[in-house]
Structures are given as structure tokens and as C-alpha cells.
Amino acid sequence: MQGVRPGRPGSLKERKRIALAISAVTARYQSLSRTGKQRLLDELQALTDYHRKSLLRRMNQRRDQRQTSLRGQHRRCYGPGEVEALVPLWEASDRLCDKRLHALLP
User: Fold this and answer.
1) Which of these, 32, 6, 20, 13, lies nearest to 58 by C-alpha position?
2) Terminal CA-to-CA distance of the chain, rounded, Å?
3) How many CB atoms are located within 10 Å of the residue 100 CB?
4) 101 Cβ partners below 8 Å, 6+ apart?
5) Per the count of CB atoms within 10 A, which of 17, 44, 57, 76 is most buried?
6) pTM of the model
């Protein structure tokens, strides 16, 4: 199979199945003792071919972080009022970058 890295599930359907399996055992993982957590991680690692650290990150994430990814999105720093005031200044400065515009504002 070309284009698939070894040790990684190939199809989107397979990745979704694995993500569901991880989210299904997350609640159980939180309530286990240390040795129970180690055994559960061993089983998941054998089942999914994911690295232990990757599985730990997935299971220790908050539920709302698991559902949506912020990759490629930017947090908004300014509200609509500030944007309305800044856009004309930005346009007048020939669309300077944020660092240079910040120095120009005072």
C-alpha cells in the first residue's frame, strides 16, 4: 500500500474507529490504579500501534479538546469595536504587519 506509513492506520474510517476506542476506555483509565493503567496502555498500544505517549496525551485531554481541533485557527485578540478602529489605521499604513503597526499606534 503506497502512501501509508508503517505503524499508522491508513484510512480515515480506521482512524475514527481507533479514536472511538480510545475515547471509550478513557473514563475507565482515569479510575484505574497505576498497574491497571499500565496494562490498559499495553493493550491499547498493541491494538492501535500508537506510541504510549500519544495514547496518554489522547486519554488525558479534556473532552472538549478531543472533539474539536484548533489547528489552523487563530484566537481572536480584539473585539469588533477594536477591529473597527484598527482597520482604517492598518489600511492607511499600507497594511503593515502587527509588530510594526503596534509601534506606529502611540
Assistant:
1) 20
2) 59
3) 9
4) 86, 89, 90, 93
5) 44
6) 0.48
Hunting for cell 498493541 — which residue is that?
46
Q: Give Cα 9 distance to the centre of its chain.
A: 18
Is 21 within 8 Å of 47 (Cβ atoms)? Answer: yes
The angle at the Cα of 36, spanning 32 to 41, to the nearest 5 degrees, equals 105
pLDDT digits (tens, 9 = 90+) for 81-97: 888 988 998 999 899 89
**86 versus 77: which is more confidently predicted?**
86
CB 86 within 8 A of CB 78: yes
